[in-house]
Write a structure and sequence with these properties.
This protein is mostly beta strands. It is built from no helices and 11 strands.
Length: about 120
């Protein structure tokens, strides 16, 4: 059973950076599609970024050019580097995984972490 644990959240001023980590146990991530999602207070969950087993990536328009997803198979960890953070990036960030297929949709993800809070405020 794959387990995912997010870390790296915190409070940062606008324009700052954070790197989120999604550490896996119970299985190796290299054959999984991994997605980062976020949910702000009072808003629906939205997809942020996704990386497939072959290395292809997706980004939401709102984060393109600012966020970068990557994976370190040796560490069994996926990262989300977040630069030029804005107040509207404030949310709980979740990583999720699916062991087959290339869909990055939330409803197709099988395993979820518990989330890490990112707060962007001056």
């Amino acid at each position: 059973q794959l387990q995912l644990v997010e870390s790296g959240g915190g409070s940062v001023q606008p324009g700052g950076s954070l790197r989120l980590s999604c550490a896996a146990s119970g299985a190796t991530l290299n054959k999984y599609t991994i997605g980062w999602f976020r949910q702000a207070p009072g808003k629906d969950r939205e997809g942020v970024s996704c990386i497939r087993s072959g290395g292809s990536t997706n980004y939401a328009d709102s984060v393109k050019g600012r966020f970068t997803i990557s994976r370190d198979n040796a560490k069994n960890t996926v990262y989300l580097q977040m630069n030029s953070l804005k107040p509207e990036d404030t949310a709980v960030y979740y990583c999720a995984a699916r062991p087959w297929g290339s869909s990055c949709l939330a409803q197709d993800m099988i395993y979820w972490g518990k989330g890490t809070l990112v707060t962007v405020s001056s």
